[in-house]
Design brief:
Shape: globular
Strand order of the largest sheet: 1-3
Number of strands: 6
Strand content: under 5%
Number of helices: 20
Order of helices and strands: HHHHHEHHHHHHHEHHEHEEEHHHHH
Distance between the termini: 48 Å
Radius of gyration: 22 Å
Largest sheet: 2 strands, antiparallel
Structural class: mainly alpha
Length: 522
């Protein structure tokens, strides 16, 4: 393992940043002082220490704290993990997943009936703001070192990570509070930025840093580069109608094309190996991941959560699949709608890493064995060996991979006549050929939008994108696209359009009432 990768995986140093930035309510109380003797002067006093601070900016994606109760005050540490929260908010309210647990705000997610006091909603909100503030503080503290080539690259990556987290907040919450390196430390009451204004900010940031980011595949695995910025721009533009009211599908295709034609990425031949414990090795498809190590970066969120929560003794017996973990928490599984996405292709489409539970129908959401077992993510290597730890996962979580860019281009071509349809069909069929192992599943022509949504579901299920896709396709709240227990009834029902956005956590609104306004209906 390279030195850079160790830095990214561990990043366990307790920095003054964590103590000084503990977010009890947004960033209203940033005048806390570190208790471990570190200050910004000592943290950034050498190149090695600056690298450690930089590692924390990355590390906060995969860690919840440093053994001191968590990065974020007032939030259960497990609920504050980024990947765990992203999965919960993007997959549980959809046909892709349902959870058997009945505590911690979980039931309201699949039922699409959450409130501004839901702790999981708050956990994601504060985690994203915390990571934004970490990146902003790093940029503030290294401003006088920007002429150094290494620091300049670090700074570009920090700006990318901050832009990504602002995309998360814009997508989930619409108009969050806005902070950057110019925001002072102390009693701060940040302004609320509009969704359209934040879209423009993210777009400008990603374009501004392009020249300072490493070229595609030049950076060590797990770090951002130019291709990750292009991928985020493609995702941003694909959803531009939702965010701004203006279509940007041709731009979505253009930035997908930049990744595709860079020549640095290709589809991994075995789909299942994308989600195994050694997916950091020989992986030409993933542009950026959140990295985990069962021994060096332990927490109860991330892939440890995703793998353990999707299995149990009964699930292991039914699937006959080794999940690479000792037990299983019996929480998350798919619905019948996920099973039906693959319809008559289950024996042919290698992406169908699913098996029916005791029944496909879910009569009771608290019964884990009702629905569909999902074994897409496993703590097992491609050679069949278990991960290093029997409870915590080594598997990395992909934030961006090439297949998404192929799908983005194809969807853009369906929606915009200016995008090359022949090229789009070729890209889409590359994804299908990997899924089938041949051209047997190839489309003869570009499919309609309904089939495009199904294909995105088959390729990207449980990767933290489904809610965003359903909203873009007009299906999330509508009554003409239902799934089990949508809206809290067994057969599914239409839900209020207000749920297209998560509410600003009530505690944060009360802490900054002059600036933070709640969405209508909450």
């Amino acid at each position: 393992m390279s030195t850079d990768k160790k830095m990214l995986r561990r990043s366990l140093t307790v920095l003054s940043l964590v103590g000084a930035l503990g977010l009890s309510s947004c960033v209203k109380d940033l005048d806390r002082f570190p208790t471990n003797g570190d200050t910004s002067r000592t943290v950034y006093s050498s190149a090695d220490k600056t690298a450690q601070a930089f590692a924390k900016v990355y590390g906060a994606f995969g860690l919840t704290g440093n053994g001191d109760g968590g990065d974020i005050a007032g939030i259960d540490e497990g609920a504050s993990d980024f990947v765990r929260g992203l999965f919960n908010l993007q997959e549980l309210p959809t046909e892709m997943a349902a959870c058997a647990w009945s505590d911690g705000g979980v039931p309201d997610l699949h039922n699409i009936s959450w409130s501004a006091s839901n702790p999981i909603v708050g956990g994601v909100y504060y985690r994203s703001l915390f990571q934004i503030k970490l990146a902003s503080d790093f940029l503030k503290q290294t401003a006088d070192k920007a002429n150094d080539a290494t620091i300049r690259t670090y700074r570009a990556e920090a700006r990318f990570l901050r832009a990504y987290q602002y995309w998360v907040l814009m997508d989930l919450f619409g108009n969050p509070p806005f902070v950057d390196e110019s925001t002072p430390t102390g009693k701060v009451y940040p302004r609320q930025i509009s969704r359209a204004e934040l879209f423009t900010h993210i777009e400008k940031e990603l374009k501004a840093i392009e020249g300072d980011l490493s070229t595609p595949q030049a950076a060590v695995y797990g770090r951002a580069n130019q291709a990750t910025a292009w991928a985020l721009l493609s995702r941003l533009y694909l959803n531009a109608v939702v965010y701004t009211g203006k279509a940007r599908y041709a731009d979505a295709a253009a930035y997908a094309e930049k990744v595709i034609t860079s020549g640095k990425y290709s589809l991994k031949s075995d789909y299942a190996q994308l989600f195994m414990a050694d997916n950091d090795q020989n992986n030409p498809e993933v542009l950026l991941s959140v990295n985990y190590d069962g021994q060096l970066s332990q927490n109860w969120g991330g892939m440890t959560f995703l793998i353990n929560s999707s299995t149990s003794a009964n699930a292991k017996a039914a699937t006959k699949v080794n999940m690479g973990v000792n037990g299983g928490w019996g929480g998350n599984r798919g619905t019948k709608s996920l099973w039906e996405l693959f319809k008559d292709t289950k024996t042919k489409d290698k992406r169908a890493l699913i098996t029916p539970g005791a029944s496909l129908e879910i009569s009771d959401l608290t019964k884990f064995d009702e629905g569909v077992y999902v074994y897409k993510f496993r703590n097992v290597t491609s050679k069949g060996a278990n991960g290093k730890d029997g409870d915590r996962a080594d598997t990395d979580f992909p934030l961006f991979r090439l297949a998404e860019l192929y799908l983005n281009y194809a969807e853009a071509a369906i929606r915009d006549t200016s995008v090359d349809k022949a090229k789009a069909l070729g890209y889409l069929n590359k994804v299908r050929e990997r899924a089938y192992g041949s051209d047997a599943g190839n489309y003869k022509a570009l499919p309609d939008l309904n089939e495009m949504l199904r294909e995105r579901g088959r390729e990207l299920y449980w990767e933290g994108q489904r809610r965003t896709d359903l909203i873009r396709f007009g299906k999330f709240t509508s009554g003409d696209y239902l799934w089990p227990w949508k809206g809290g009834v067994a057969g599914g029902q239409k839900v209020d359009d207000k749920y297209k956005l998560y509410p600003i956590p009530e505690a944060d609104r009360q802490a900054n009432p002059e600036n933070i306004k709640q969405h209508p209906g909450y």
